[in-house]
Amino acid sequence: MNGRSATFPSHRYLQLGIAAFGCWLLAGCGAPGDPQPPSPAIPSAIGDLSAQQHGNGVELVFTLPRRTVAGDRLAEPPAMEIFRGSLKPNGAPDNKTFKLVYTIPGALADVYTARRKIQFTQPKYSAPIRELRLRTGCGPAHPEKKIPQIPTL
Predict the structure, then answer these.
(1) What are phi and psi for residue 46, nearest 5 degrees?
(2) How many Cα atoms within 13 Å fall on the side-chain side of residue 50?
(3) Which of its termini does the chain have fewer beta carbons within 10 Å around, N or C?
């Protein structure tokens, strides 16, 4: 034959395959930057929160959101956080006084549901309630609802 071995074409294909694989590895894939964990679903804000004071206790009634702030359907009920604090002499909320008093896991939402609304009665406290805040989901990024004036029964 003309001085070439019969295996020349197969070596050529192997070299091309290795070169293509190397280019593929160098090019990478996916989005640029470090991998990011999936964003948590942030529930939309509660729109129908009401409260009735019973002595120093308060009954909260509201509908849990079914959608996220992006409009997607929530896969499960969100956790609920209830904060308690007081007002300044001018009637503005005193953010330094707010403390988390209850966290209700979303899995327990059915326990507090009556007529498709959450009904939660906060036990008696020694100090009168000036303001409550309710947040669905956990963490500061989640929307919260304030109750500045609580009617007394």
Answers:
(1) -75, 130
(2) 7
(3) N
